[in-house]
Structure prediction request, 247 residues.
Amino acid sequence: MSMKNIINAQQKKEFGEMVQHFIDNKGLISMSLNSFEGYVLNSENLMNIIHSHKARLKDPEHLMDKLIRKYNESVEKKKKFTITKNNLLIKINDLGGFRILHLYTKQFEQIHLELKKIIDEQNWKIVEGPSAKTWDDESREYFESIGVKVDKSPNMYTSVHYIIKPNSKSGITLEVQVRTLMEEVWGEVDHSINYPHKSDSSSVREQIKVLARVTSSCSRLVDSIFSTHGEHLTAKSKDKTKKQAKK
Prediction:
């Protein structure tokens, strides 16, 4: 049965009103996103670490689809559907999203410290996170070693998520994602094909799983390159110091 056929006309009307409420408040969400982007751009320490960043507002059609999915999940689990027009901006955390991309995994620790510094200085709040969604054992071990909560990701998605709240009376929240460029490659391909609904091609789904493994291997290789480069620079510096001491 199609998910959209489960809801009745009244429910669809209510979802339409919620989507319109989001559209009416896009300016407010954009202001918060723009403010956060400004803080990131003005953080010299953070900009020296990250590769790039993206900010985006949720597509209204994708919001409608998400509301229908969440409603159907509530029906299947025999739970009350609690999202309304009045609490939409609070309950749906990814109406505004900010993504930070970096080159290799171990940069995350410094990125987290700089993000927390920005959030604290601006009297914003981390509502949830950081939470690392990963399927890879080595990634899980790394994040657990630095005290980051890890959630299993059966669909092979990998990213660190935060839900943050601006210092305002609006009550809105924003989603912040932090991931490597390699993880972004997989994420963009998967999002293009499997969002908001998964591909019905078993071959395509299998190829995307293979891509996840390939990008994970590439991430490890990039990590190794930077680790080896750091060790080389350290050894070179020590050697230079020894030579100067002999003079």
